[in-house]
Design brief:
185 residues; alpha+beta; Immunoglobulin-like; five-stranded mixed β-sheet; four-stranded antiparallel β-sheet
Length: 185
Amino acid sequence: MKATTTAVKSAIAAGGIAAASVFAAATASAAGANIQGFGTSEQLVDGPLITNYTVSNLQQSNAAIPGYTPKGTLYQADITARSDGGTVTPMVRDFSARGPNGQTYKLIDKVGVPNGLNPAPIPQGSESRGALYFDVTGAPPNGVVYNDGLQDILIWTSNVPGASAPGAPNSSPVPGALPGPATNS
């Protein structure tokens, strides 16, 4: 079989377009997310339903979860879900922890967890508090992500751009983001 120059060029172009499309889709999913520091309230709007989530205190945990043996290191984060519009249902399973390398750690939700956020409906003006637990099997997480199944919507991180002390570089990028260029000091 003889390949023509035109066929080879077409195949190379198609491969380049496919690679660019994958990169653009990955960038677009992170680009639309609302990125804030831990302890900041982030609003999730679904038509007339408005839920304000606040995630804080992502740290290693020594909690015992009955019926669950971690494969890695157990982490937990505090969470508050508040209804600011309608009766909302916290979408607890949409939360994950994420490391600076992009590795995602799913929420432990197959068994009951101590002080976990109750997924019961919250009437307007009320709130529910609890904890989220993650089994971290790789790099320590530096963020918690709310993902709607298609893309990241809300991100809380210890590395919000511009949040460092003046002249102090962030130790790691926003969860899943590529590190910035090195600076000469």
